[in-house]
Design a protein that fits this description.
By secondary structure, the chain is an all-alpha fold. 66% of the residues lie in helices and 0% in strands. The radius of gyration is 25 Å and the shape is extended.
C-alpha cells in the first residue's frame, strides 16, 4: 500500500509540473496504452521476469493516469476503480462470497443486484461451482444478470480485439452457455470440410469467396486449438519467434559470406535454415 501510494503521489506531481503529463488526455494516451500492453505481452511470451515487472509498471501507470484524468473531471478516481473491480469480483464469485460468508458480523448485500431481485438471491444457483469449467459457465450467466453487464453473451467480446484472439473469445463464450462440440475429436471433420471448401474456391480464383473460406478455415482451426486447451495466439507467436530466429541465422550467414540474400539460391537458404533448426535441439 505504501508503494502504491508513492506511485500515486509521483503521478500527482507529474500531472502538476511536467509539461508532457499536463497535456495528456484519454485520447492522446490510448495509442501509448496499446503499445505498453503489447510490450507486456511480449515479455510474458518470452517469460522475461525482469521485463514483466517493468512492463507491468508501465501498464499500471496508464491505468492510474486514466483514473487521475477521471478524478479531475469529477467522474471517478482510483479508489472507485478499485472498489468497482472488487465489487464485480465478489458478485461473480458466489461460490466464494456466498451471502453467509460476506462480512464478519452478518451477511451484507452484494453489489450489482439485478433489478427485481433481492440481494444474495441470484447467488445461490451458482454457489456450488467446484471446477474452473463450472466457474466459467457461471460467469456468463452472472454477467447477463448484472444491471450494467453484458446484454448478450457475445457482447462482452471487445470489438477492437485482434481477430485471432477475438475468434477464441467468441468460441469460449459460446461454450460457456453450452454451444460447443460434444466430443472434441469431431472438430476435425469441420476443419477438413473448411479446408476443402477453401481449396475449391482457390481453384476458381475467386478472391472474395476464397477470403470468406479462408476465414472459415482459420476459425475452425482456432476452434480445434481451444477444444484441445491450446492457446492459438501464443502458439502462433512462438512460431513467429522461431521463424525470426532461423531467418536471422540465414541473414547473418549471408552478411559474413558477403553474399546478399537475393543472390542466394533457395537450396542454400534451405540448408542454412536446417542448420539453424538443428541448433535449437
Amino acid at each position: 500500500m505504501k508503494a502504491f501510494g508513492r506511485l500515486l503521489d509521483v503521478l500527482d506531481q507529474l500531472r502538476q509540473k511536467c509539461p508532457w503529463d499536463k497535456k495528456q488526455t484519454n485520447e492522446s494516451l490510448r495509442p501509448n496504452t496499446i503499445e505498453e500492453t503489447y510490450e507486456l505481452c511480449d515479455a510474458l511470451i518470452r517469460d522475461d521476469r525482469k521485463n514483466i515487472c517493468k512492463e507491468l509498471g508501465d501498464v499500471l501507470m496508464h491505468v492510474m493516469f486514466y483514473a487521475k484524468i477521471g478524478s479531475e473531471g469529477g467522474d471517478f478516481d482510483m479508489a472507485d476503480v478499485c472498489n468497482m473491480q472488487a465489487d464485480k469480483l465478489i458478485f461473480r464469485h458466489p461460490h466464494i462470497y456466498h451471502p453467509s460468508q460476506v462480512g464478519a458480523e452478518e451477511p451484507k448485500p452484494l453489489p450489482y443486484v439485478p433489478e427485481g431481485e433481492q440481494a444474495g438471491e441470484q447467488q445461490r444457483p451458482f454457489a456450488e461451482a467446484k471446477t474452473s469449467e463450472q466457474v466459467l459457465q457461471n460467469w456468463e450467466q452472472i454477467k447477463l444478470k448484472e444491471k450494467d453487464g453484458n446484454k448478450t453473451v457475445l457482447s462482452g467480446v471487445p470489438s477492437a480485439l485482434p481477430s485471432l484472439i477475438k475468434a477464441y473469445r467468441i468460441q469460449d463464450k459460446a461454450r460457456n452457455v453450452g454451444f460447443d462440440w460434444e466430443k472434441k475429436e469431431d472438430v476435425w471433420d469441420k476443419v477438413r470440410e473448411e479446408l476443402g471448401e477453401l481449396e475449391a474456391e482457390l481453384r476458381q480464383e475467386d478472391k472474395e469467396r476464397s477470403t470468406n473460406e479462408l476465414g472459415d478455415f482459420l476459425f475452425s482451426v482456432i476452434n480445434a486449438a481451444r477444444l484441445y486447451k491450446l492457446n492459438p495466439d501464443n502458439a502462433l507467436e512462438r512460431t513467429n519467434q522461431k521463424f525470426i530466429r532461423r531467418f536471422n541465422y540465414i541473414e547473418q550467414h549471408s552478411i559474413r559470406a558477403g553474399k546478399p540474400l537475393t543472390d542466394m539460391t533457395l537450396e542454400e537458404m534451405d540448408a542454412l535454415w536446417n542448420e539453424a533448426k538443428s541448433m535449437e535441439h
